[in-house]
């Protein structure tokens, strides 16, 4: 009965979400504070109902209840326990439920942490969140329900299994992270809509929006990094970013969100760029919606996916039209009521942030065009296929991101309103020198081309620039050590966040350039006992064996890795064939982490000459993950910053507490 | 229907809790509403404090600090002004609140119910696999019984008894490919596979290929012959193989010889005799289609003939016939003791014939055969109790 109760709870949540939309927004419209007060409990109820519903579905998965169609289609009894749980969201219907679950969690968080929000704004924000929830819940209940049952008497005894590629720890955590990012931008979206309805965007609004944007951005960064990491070690091609539409779908909201993160600062500090920031908030969430639906509807692989499931397709189009079209229409008609304030010179912190926004927006547009063009082409030519590949993205995206990276260390050092570029450059002497030295060193020692040397110089410039700015703040080498230590300890979270995130970007750039420029690659058919040299290592192929896992059979290739004639590791690469689902076997890579990079071995198919083996050396690839980790860590520290949590009710208390502490 | 009632009680309770939570704020006294400007002021004061901290830390030069201070002070002044104006407007709103909110809240269960009865299956119980497997015997859920045996076999793939038990079950469900595999495993696990086992394997192969005697099937029956020369079942199938291969003469000879060797009371005789008659009567006709060959064992035709014979026979003859059948069953169960239904039939028949000692003997053998199977033992015991055989 849990399944049916879960279904009922979901339907009840739909009804509550409509209530949550209508009552508070109406209350805010007529200025009735008691109606506005009803928003927060509705958000709480919504969360409880969706949690229960989601838990009921997970329960059905864990207990292998094949009377639920969705469970039968995507689970298998022989699956390890953890993948029974994650299997819940490794399919369209379940992932949509995860989406609304995360949405309800964010809505609850807004309701709980909005002590410092004016009541009408809070009511409208929660109302807009409710509207998003009701659209999604309606979609789920109507055409994408995970609670559809198989008729009694025809219930099968075994499920069809889960896509083996998705049976992986990184990919178990990837969707929840990614969705937390996508859905997090709904809060910024709701704030933007509420501001348009209220006709008021000011410095305070900027401050309220910032933590939510930062939270969404942090989750999204983590989600994308996990996805990239997964692609690296699971797909067996040694790459970590393919400009694949699915990847782009998550990258576009990230770019727009990064722009929003920066422009919201200008709104808060300088009360400027207000209409632009509102637009960015709408755009960031619109890209999140597009990302969610494009990936899940399968339309990316072909527009025909739409035709095979017209009901869902129409629904999805309607939701996209409602939220993207509706919000942009509201923006077009209401944006003029937002008062403009705050003037600034081109060379100033604001100016730098505007450049940041322009370049990021253009980069987003470039990615969008590259992603959507094949679809448009297919639709326009009646089925013609083209792919937009790496060269396009490298050229357009690269050209736009290059100046942004050069500006990146400069921006934070410019003063608000009117800055002095020469003074700022003076304060980045060390970073410039280090970047030049590093680039020169790699060019001379390793014979890098001009492009690679330039790329490395830019990466080093961003990385060292971020730290030089930090060193200036804590007065490193300019003040006695105890003063420096005190400054490090008392440095506010948002400044740490900036330094870590910017340095992280530098590391990612370095990792990307180095790992692609000096990537070692050997692809050959190997006989047992055969040796191959790569990047100073000697890899010996020992042969194949059979192996069994909990729910798969594997062919396992054993490799011995020698360095300077000494055995340093024995590692395995497998091809796994999973029970339940037929299809391509998955590849399990032998990955050896070394100080200079990863040795990456993947077995391929049999060939007349032996076994195809792909061996890569990926220099410094861990800079990518380290950089992403720094960005995420920065985001977390920024969120912990006390200034995002001030509430007017708590203020008197904290003052008393502070006095008591003294 | 109880599960339906239970479901609606739970769903109703959930709905009630939801309604209470939604309307809870109405039960409280209204909190003091603050104007937007109050919130803005709080933010600006915080900004000012942070600015002072940054200046104190020396993060800003004097000029920038002064500019920023001015700007925030300007915002504070404006917000203060707005606050004064707003105070007057805030009074006296909130009419009809209770009515509006209760109507809106009551629409929630109405919408939910209307949608759920369309989309859901109220009260339909869950069906977790484990529970289904546990109740398989009670519910006569053959598929689940097989699944349970399969799961045991996955853990203990060299359990001969398991394979022997599951193979006939697959056959009953018509999953011949799996039956073939099960017999094959049983053969490879047996220390000394019997002719009967090879016959069962061969028959399953024949049924799996739609009546065709494949090379593998022929090999199985030959093996049975080798183990037990003169075994009638494999002889019959090998004759059928000849027939399918177009060697009609050989087939006919083999069948005739088989008929001669079979004791007069074997029920299958009639079928074979008929086949022999057909083959010798129409020498020009092609071999009968393979379907005919499959119907070995008690074909429906044979059963019908037997019933007919029994009805026509005198009471004495009928008794003899029955005794004969029972002895046949007894012999079959000695070779193939995995057939629970067979054992139950044998015990009952012995008792009905008044052969209580033999019935007890069959009972003991049946218990031995199913010593590891609690469900089967339960059924055997309950039959024994029913027949008054339990000592």
Task: Output the keywords.
heterodimer, A: 662 residues, alpha+beta, five-stranded antiparallel β-sheet, four-stranded antiparallel β-sheet, 64% helix, B: 391 residues, mainly alpha, Serine Threonine Protein Phosphatase 5, Tetratricopeptide repeat, 75% helix, 0% strand, elongated
Question: How would you describe the overall organization of this protein?
Answer:
The complex is a heterodimer of chains A (662) and B (391). Chain A has 662 residues and is α+β, with helices and mostly antiparallel strands. Chain A is 64% helix and 12% strand. In chain A, the strands form two sheets. Chain A has a five-stranded antiparallel sheet, with no helix packed on it. Chain A has a four-stranded antiparallel sheet with strand order 1-9-8-7, covered by helices on one side. In chain A, strand 7 (590-594) and strand 8 (597-607) form a beta hairpin. Chain B is mainly alpha-helical and 391 residues long. Chain B has helices spanning 2-27, 36-56, 62-89, 97-119, 129-134, 142-155, 160-173, 176-189, 195-208, 215-227, 232-244, 248-261, 269-281, 290-294, 300-312, 315-335, 340-352, 356-369, 374-387. Chain B is elongated and about 120 Å long. Chains A and B meet through helix 1, helix 2, helix 3, helix 7 and helix 9 of A and helix 1, helix 2, helix 3, helix 4 and helix 5 of B.
The percent range for strand residues of chain A is 5-15%
Low-confidence stretches of chain B: 285-298
Structural class of chain B: mainly alpha
What is the radius of gyration of chain A? 27 Å
Q: Please describe the biggest sheet of chain B, giving its number of strands, its sense, and whether it closes into a barrel.
A: none
The overall average pLDDT of chain A, rounded, is 86
User: What is the domain tally of chain B?
Assistant: 3
Counting structural domains of chain A, the number is 3
